[in-house]
Amino acid sequence: MKGLQCKELTGVDALTLTELEDPKPGPDEVVIDVKIASVNFPDVLIIQGLYQFQPPLPFVPGGECSGIISSIGDEVKNFAVGDNVFAMTGTGAFAEKLKANHNSVMKIPNSMDHEVAAALSMTYGTSLYALKQRANLKAGETLLVLGAAGGVGLAAVELGKAMGAKVIAAVSSQEKADVCIEHGADEFIIYPSEDMDKDQQKNLSKQIKELSGGFGVNVIYDPVGGSYSEPALRAIAWEGRYLVIGFAAGPIPKIPLNLSLLKGCQIVGVFWGAWTGLDPEGNLNNFEELFKLHAEGKINPKVSDKFSLNDAALAIAHLKDRKAKGKVIISM
Ligand SMILES: NC(=O)c1ccc[n+]([C@@H]2O[C@H](COP(=O)([O-])OP(=O)(O)OC[C@H]3O[C@@H](n4cnc5c(N)ncnc54)[C@H](OP(=O)(O)O)[C@@H]3O)[C@@H](O)[C@H]2O)c1
After folding, report:
1. What residues have CB less than 8 Å from 16, skipping those under 6 apart?
2. Pocket of ligand 1 contains residue 243 by CB under 6 Å
């Protein structure tokens, strides 16, 4: 099979399409013929040695995909050859075949195609867990989403609407704002695409407060970090919940803790991958809810760019360069 291989941790330029041995399943594993792999920010980090866990070199990047099971291990009882599934394995998905532990695989409902399945799993899984289990977002509350046209951001916009919140999308361009409005955002803010200076930060806080009717926003979903986080937190409502999702902008913000005291707010960490291991049943229930929301037309993952496996390195670069408006996928 062909796979994109990372042999050194120097980013996209060092990735090469390589002929690799076909994988064989261990007793509790399945092998999937990958149809669609999708690109997520951790793929950008892992090929530079910047992610929370690092596989030994060489490795095939790619955290998730959808496809069809082509062989199964002796101890696997819950899947059969021919099942349509998606898998979240952290690595290995940017290849024609993927070997996965059966616990990291889920069946796709008949009504869902492979593109949607690959585009939905990590982004909507993360955002539903964040908004439901971590923030307890309620209908009628205001939700601010930073980086709202990105993968997890756009999922948060759609899920926030589906949960009955008023959604404010914050993004770096009008084009991205248009995508968020198409996907249900009520209001938008365009922030500078470079690091913000003090005046720009004050202006961002002011804009957020104005759009929330002067009270501040109840829930903030932050996958961006950098210079955007503190001004957003300064515009949170009394007893608000600030969701720490990720740091796509690079720097990890250092927040003055007096803000949490003054606002009576919570700063809430979100680590979806860890939670799926600690509460697999909760995660399964969340996915059932996501499948239902999709069948009802309440969520509709947006694929913004489609690449072939030959161009998989370009797909990762596209995300890294802040060009994605929704999901970037790789079709086998
Ligand atoms: N906590 C969890 O469980 C969990 C799960 C999945 C992902 N994540 C994290 O969530 C973050 C977003 O992931 P994603 O897959 O949604 O990524 P994505 O599609 O690339 O979206 C990230 C967004 O961040 C904004 N951004 C600001 N500065 C940026 C920069 N210097 N480079 C790139 N983007 C920048 C961009 O929007 P604008 O241009 O509009 O600013 C972009 O749309 C990542 O840090 C990822 O590790 C966390």
Report:
1. 4, 5, 7
2. no
Q: Give the model confidence (pLDDT) of 82-106 as tens digits.
A: 999 999 999 999 999 999 999 999 9
Asked if residue 117 belongs to a domain, the reply is: no
Does residue 40's CB lie within 6 angstroms of at least one atom of ligand 1? yes
Which CATH number belongs to the domain containing residue 78 in this structure?
Answer: 3.90.180.10
Does a structural domain hold residue 203? yes
In whole angstroms, give the CA distance from residue 56 to residue 38. Answer: 22
- The protein residue whose alpha carbon is closest to atom 40 in ligand 1 is 171
Q: Which CATH number belongs to the domain containing residue 231 in this structure? A: 3.40.50.720
Ligand 1 pocket mutation pick from 131, 190, 193, 224 by most atoms within 8 angstroms of CB:
224
pLDDT of residue 52: 85
What distance in angstroms lies between residue 146's CA and the mean position of ligand 1's atoms?
9
Residue 176, judged by CB atoms within 10 A of its CB (0-12, 13-18, 19+), counts as: buried
Same domain, 46 and 148: no
Walking along the chain (332 residues) 10 residues at a time, the average pLDDT comes out as: 97 96 98 98 96 93 98 97 96 98 94 94 97 98 98 98 98 97 98 92 97 96 97 98 96 96 98 94 97 96 96 97 94 96
- Please name the residues in contact with 281: beta carbons below 8 A apart, sequence gap of 6 or more: none
Q: Is 145 in the pocket of ligand 1 (CB under 6 A)?
A: no
Nearest residue to 205 via CA among 231, 233, 187: 231
Quick: pLDDT tens for 215-254: 999 999 999 999 999 999 999 999 999 999 999 999 999 9
pTM attached to this predicted model: 0.96
The CB of 315 under 6 Å from ligand 1? The reply is: no
Cβ of residue 247 lying under 6 Å from some atom of ligand 1: yes
Regarding the beta carbon of 147 and ligand 1, being less than 6 Å apart is answered yes
Our answer on whether the CB atom of 63 is closer than 6 Å to any ligand 1 atom is no
Q: Tell me the two tokens of residue 25.
A: 């399943």
| pLDDT the model gives residue 53 | 86
Kindly give the number of the ligand 1 atom that is closest to the alpha carbon of 42: 47
